[in-house]
Predict the 3D structure of the following.
Amino acid sequence: MSNNGTDLTTGFISCIVAILLFGSNFVPLKKYETGDGMFLQWVLCAAVWLVALVVNLILHCPKFWPFAMVGGCIWATGNIAVVPIIKTIGLGLGILIWGSFNALTGWASSRFGWFGMDAEEVSKPLLNYVGAGLSVVSAFIFLFIKSEIPNNTHSVDTTPLITEHVINKTQDRDPDYSWVDKLSTMQNRLVGCSLAVISGILYGSTFVPIIYIKDHSKRNDSIYVGASQNDLDYVFAHFSGIFLTSTVYFLAYCVAMKNSPKLYPKAVLPGFLSGVLWAIATCCWFIANHSLSPVGPGFIAAMWGVFMFKEIQGRQNYLLMILAFCIILTGALCTAFSKI
């Protein structure tokens, strides 16, 4: 009982830390120019890999499984869209949408045993499906919440950088502005929500290779027999996949830009900090793998968007957000109780 109690306490503490950091890790970038996000992506992923290296050394270099890198490749692919998403629909709403679809994809893949994983058994299947259904409803509601971006771009501290498109169009455009800044308001909405859904689905699939290895480690006829059941032992391989993929994408971007990529020096330190925060959050997520809730990261991000950056405004939007949170919280509780 003592060990179980300690594990549960560790799990909840890790879960809380992950929620706080996942909901806040992009905040350092809010005030800095990031352009199309490709340079930022590479800086962020470099920081992620360095954290993984430290964790790997602390764990005394557990066995490296190359297949776990595939999850990192999937994550890096979804992460390419982060800057366009935040520029079009905002930090809070972006994380709310991709977080919801992340959770739904993770639930479905584990519940039904997709991609060769062992299907999860629950003691109350109906309650489990109700929880998932409520999550779908909440994700649908998030799509109707509108984000508003302040028009004042001349203030000393509001030259937003993960800045949204709703800026005075009569002003001269910086030639370094990304393609996102050329979209209309309706196109912004459509592109932002669509990319957030796609990123969420990719994020929800990122841990599939690790779960696959762990499930097949129990099978004597598998090449993964004897593989570790400790999620942290796969951090280095997973994060190496992230850094490798982001490097390939950045090199391809440099080729496409004819060796004239858009670089933003002022975004280096904020980007690095963002990567470190994300990496720590993911390590905590690994530790708290069985205690996670889809509500937390989105809630924290929404609070940043509402109170700090004033992205989500208006009574209707507030009511929709509160309704969606109540529904998703109910769904999370249903899913949790279905396993008891």
